[in-house]
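ARCHIVE CARD
CATEGORY: sequence design from structure
SOURCE FIELD: tokenized fold
FIELD CONTENT:
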């Protein structure tokens, strides 16, 4: 898909799975994958495939929202394949709810935050390279208590290998960071090699 996007619209209680089997999706006008409504969506990079998503929009506003993959519901990224994401506009993968990642080989190169889950980020496993040239690698923003009494804002890493290269913070949790396992390599600011001078 050389110029276009995928839009997912579901009923409030519905779930969907997007299987990626060797695709390239590029958009210069909107989010390449936009998940508008529903309960939860899973995006799976299937075994032995390489999948590429490019957000080629030009950022002319400090109020930019969205990303190469942008979801307004819970989002899970998984699979035994490879997923490569480049965002020249804003975030790489962003969910306004919970974001979960497991198993796959994932590389994200974003001008702003590489991986953002407003309510939470959970990384179970995988080989992840996250690059942010003017933001954070892993970021949550909402630290409120949910209607079910759950604390929002956590970033949880249970396993996997993470290479985090950021202009600012590698991990920026609005509430707490919980690391139960995995290998985490961090380079920020001048050591990351992906940013110019950081003034603030």
């Amino acid at each position: 898909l050389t110029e276009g996007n995928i839009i997912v619209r579901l009923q409030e209680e519905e779930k969907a799975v997007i299987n990626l089997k060797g695709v390239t999706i590029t958009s210069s006008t909107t989010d390449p994958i936009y998940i508008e409504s529903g309960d939860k969506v899973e995006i799976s990079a299937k075994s032995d495939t390489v999948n590429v998503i490019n957000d080629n929009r030009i950022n002319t506003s400090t109020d930019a929202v969205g990303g190469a993959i942008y979801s307004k519901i819970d989002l899970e990224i998984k699979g035994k394949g490879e997923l490569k994401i480049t965002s020249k506009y804003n975030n790489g993968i962003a969910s306004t709810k919970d974001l979960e990642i497991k198993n796959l080989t994932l590389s994200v190169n974003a001008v702003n935050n590489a991986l953002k889950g407003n309510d939470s980020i959970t990384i179970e496993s995988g080989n992840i390279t996250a690059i942010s040239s003017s933001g954070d690698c892993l970021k949550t923003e909402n630290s409120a208590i949910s209607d079910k009494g759950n604390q929002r804002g956590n970033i949880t890493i249970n396993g996997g290998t993470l290479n985090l290269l950021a202009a600012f913070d590698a991990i920026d949790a609005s509430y707490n960071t919980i690391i139960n396992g995995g290998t985490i390599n961090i380079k920020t600011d001048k050591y990351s090699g992906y940013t110019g001078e950081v003034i603030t």
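CARD ANNOTATION: The radius of gyration is 16 Å. The first strand starts at residue 6 and ends at 9.
SHELF: design records, drawer C
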